[in-house]
Amino acid sequence: MIWDDKRAELVKQKQVLYGFDFEVATLCNSVIAGLVSVSASSFNIDLWAAGMIGGLGFLIYYNSKKTILRYEIDDPMEITEVHGICGIWSVLAVGLFDKDVGLLYTGQLGQLAIQLLGATAYTVWALLLSFFFFYSLKQNDRLRVPPLYEMIGMDFMTSDYSVFIKILREEERKEFIRLSQNQRAQ
Predict the structure, then answer these.
(1) Is the pTM of this model over 0.85?
(2) What ranges do the domains of the chain cover?
(3) pLDDT of residue 164
(4) Would residue 141 be called left, alpha or beta, if left means φ above 0 and alpha means ψ between -120 and 50 degrees?
(5) Cβ(82)–Cβ(62) below 8 Å
(6) Rounded to whole angstroms, what are the CA distances from 89 to 20, 37, 54, 102, 131?
């Protein structure tokens, strides 16, 4: 345990020293964003293009993450940034970097226009499907969990909480038991 604390402190010092501000989840999502970005065009691109597409995918992921946080959109797993926005970039990258029909090799905009049309169709389809799905959940009062679940947490409320209840102080324990019994009675 002491070794883990020292290692964590060393990593934190290195982050401050080199100016990095990241978490492990952000690092993993950055790698996945690069892989998603290169996936659509991976069959017909050069190695330098794969590196450039992946690097640009990271930048797109990181900036879209900051934008989604700024507008307070709830996406705790960052699925929209990694798979949605980087997926769109992946589709567009085919029109730019493909060795046979890409803009950088042929100088023609035809394939990029086709890829842009495909990305637009994909986006419209996903937005419409999501809207109807979440709107129907909202109309049936299934979009949100009860306030007690939000306050304490879904994992805690849906599992056997007898192990966790020992952590709480006596007053908190009594209040929690009272609230959970009221919630389950409803």
Answers:
(1) no
(2) 2-142, 144-186
(3) 57
(4) left
(5) no
(6) 25, 6, 10, 14, 23
